Amino acid sequence: MRGALLVAGTSSDAGKSVLVAGICRWLARQGIKVAPFKAQNMSNNSAVTPDGGEIGRAQAMQARAAGLEPSTRFNPVLLKPGSDHSSQVVIHGKPAGTLRDYRERNFADTVLSTLDDLRRDFDVVICEGAGSPAEVNLRDRDIANLGLARAADLPVLVVGDIDRGGVLAHLFGTLAVLDPADQAMIQAFVINKFRGDQTLLQPGLDWLTAQTGRPVLGVLPWREDLWLDTEDSLSYTPDGAIGRPLPPHGEQWLRVAVVRLPRISNATDVEALACEPGVAVRFVTEPSRLADADLIVLPGSKSTVDDLEWLRDRGLADAIVNSTTPVLGICGGYQMLGRRIVDHVESRRGEVAGLGLVDLEVEFAAEKTLTRPAGTALGCPVTGYEIHHGRVVRQPRPHLIEPLEGVHTDRVMGTHWHGLLDNDHFRRTFLRWVAERAGRTGFVPAPDVDVVRARAAQLDTLGDLVVRHLDLAAIEALIVDGPQRWPTLRITAR
Q1: Pair type for strands 412-415 and 407-408
Q2: Per-residue pLDDT, 233
């Protein structure tokens, strides 16, 4: 089998990323050399490639589904929002200016040449669109959806999220607003997150096919166990629970409050905690929600200084400083714990006072640190990855990670390392430390939680869902044969 397919969605978080991962897993199981590709991603959840580049976390997850190491070729353009009006642009894994620079440049050649290289090196490339292909206001500079499909002659499969309601209108409307040439690239539909009796849905699917001429190639069911590696910020709801933990291994629960920063980055770090039986993890945005927490987590941020100001405005900063609850700071959250931040790079706010919980000073550098280090933390061998502009210029001992990384006091731990909690031995040791300081003597970490294995099991689940619920022969035909010319959908006023 040789060819390519583009999976588009009716909206962000419709299911594009997981469907691409599921298709990659299905193909890889058959021995087909398959690679994921997202021309342009907008996300603050990212991963570091072995060669020191940065890509969207979803593409790293899709690479694992395909049995590959992450590569900058899988996501050549990454936009990292720092505010409502600005984003950092990352090209082939390296920072390349701001969104203003992006608007003034056309990266279509970069995207198309990268895709051409992948198609030469792999049997199949499964592409993921961005947002919705029906964003007609952005069509003239689109390089991720139908602009890519037409330039590379890619068949397009559109997925819609039925759990939000209105999925038939979303799918029909997505097709209807496109011009005839773009409509011709849309080949079929998939329904995602269905709960209930499919016989009740079938008349709607039949209507959609009759009205558009395009088949529905399957209905993927809702699965509560598919929550790891969430990339889209829509999934991080304020005051919402993360995951669905099993009952405690011991006699007591631990309650973890993760501050839901406006510019939260790599919040997937805390998913490892939510894998643990008896650990209840939730996002919080109000000081009152910290009152009963056994651990407060300050996660990563794309704009540390601006999010620190938000903490102060919401009263969260005072609540954290005046509390005795243990605190874990990760990357941007770690930088907030110190006495002083000097930032002329992200926020350009200059010198700003931190929370003052540790004797730490950070200055932002123009060059971003992108590494995948290894070390020892709490006596445990650990690995992780770093993505930050902030450089430590003053740091107290003892360090959390040896050699020379992070801080560790009676109440506070902090590090620039993402992925630290994925290390099973360290995570269990860390949770015992939290339980001791929180007085939860009845909490006992489970001895057998393996986060890497849990992530792999989720990818297997995605592959199983594709096999059980999609028309595989039709999808193979799309990949091999390319786009077929379907009728144009015309809407007339009545």
Answers
A1: antiparallel
A2: 47
pLDDT over 90 at 65, yes or no: yes
275 is an active site residue: no
What average pLDDT does range 425-435 have in this prediction? 97
The structural domains of the chain, ordered by start, are: 3-215+471-481 (3.40.50.300), 237-450 (3.40.50.880)
Statement: residue 228 has pLDDT above 80: no
**What is the Rg, in whole angstroms, of the alpha carbon atoms belonging to the chain?**
23
Instruction: For the chain, give the mean pLDDT.
Output: 92
Active site residue: 331, 389, 408, 469, which one? 331
Of the chain, the end-to-end C-alpha distance in Å amounts to 46
Residue with tokens 């290390």: 423
Whether 331 is catalytic: yes
For the residues 307-331, what does the mean pLDDT come to?
A: 97
92, 388, 408, 418: the catalytic one is: 418
Nearest CA to 469 among 15, 73, 8?
Answer: 15
CB-CB contact of 263 with 307 (8 Å): yes
- Please report which confidence band the pLDDT of residue 290 belongs to, taking 50, 70 and 90 as the band edges: very high
Q: What integer pLDDT is reported at residue 414 of this predicted model?
A: 97
Which of 104-113, 336-345, 471-480 is predicted least confidently?
Answer: 104-113
Task: Measure the CA–CA gap between 247 and 276, rounded to whole angstroms.
Answer: 9
Residue 492: the pLDDT is: 43
